[in-house]
Amino acid sequence: PGDSVSMVCVTTGGDPPPTLTWIKAIGSLPETSVLNGGTLTLHSINVDEAGAYSCLANNNVGNPAKKSSSITVRALKKGRFWITPDPYHDDDNIQIGREVKISC
């Protein structure tokens, strides 16, 4: 999560040259997506943007060509943690607003 992902769609040949469009299988393209030629870039990707994306090449001659790719976003769900004192260490202090390292 949070990284950028780019998918590139390239055509060879075609007369007239085909136009390239990207679609998402379920729903619409994310608002933050950027289309530049045949490249679709998703910035600061999150779990909601995972799924199948397809590039369509169409020159209005014959049937459009379509290639698909899937994006998987793996993230931890928001969780709650309860911190209890360690019975073996009396000197552990946790201050509000400070960083805490938790080992599982």
Structural summary, described in words:
The chain has no helices and six strands. It has a three-stranded antiparallel β-sheet, with no helix packed on it. It has a three-stranded antiparallel β-sheet with strand order 2-5-6, with no helix packed on it. The protein is an all-beta fold. The radius of gyration is 23 Å and the shape is rod-shaped. The chain has strands at residues 5-8, 19-24, 33-36, 39-42, 51-58, 65-71. Strand 5 and strand 6 form a beta hairpin.
- Strand percentage lies at 25-35%
Helix content: under 10%
Q: Give the SSE string.
A: EEEEEE
Helix-strand category: mainly beta
**CA radius of gyration:** 23 Å
Mean pLDDT: 86
- In spatial order, strands of the major sheet run 1-4-3
**What would you call the shape?**
rod-shaped
Question: Strand count, sense and closure of the main sheet?
Answer: 3 strands, antiparallel
Number of strands: 6
Distance between the termini: 21 Å
Sequence stretches where pLDDT stays below 50 over 5 or more residues: none
Q: What is the number of helices? A: 0
Which helices and strands appear, and what pairs or packs with what?
Layout: E1 5-8, E2 19-24, E3 33-36, E4 39-42, E5 51-58, E6 65-71
Antiparallel strand pairs: 1-4, 2-5, 3-4, 5-6
Key descriptive features of the protein:
104 residues; mainly beta; three-stranded antiparallel β-sheet
Brief write-up:
The chain is mostly beta strands and 104 residues long.
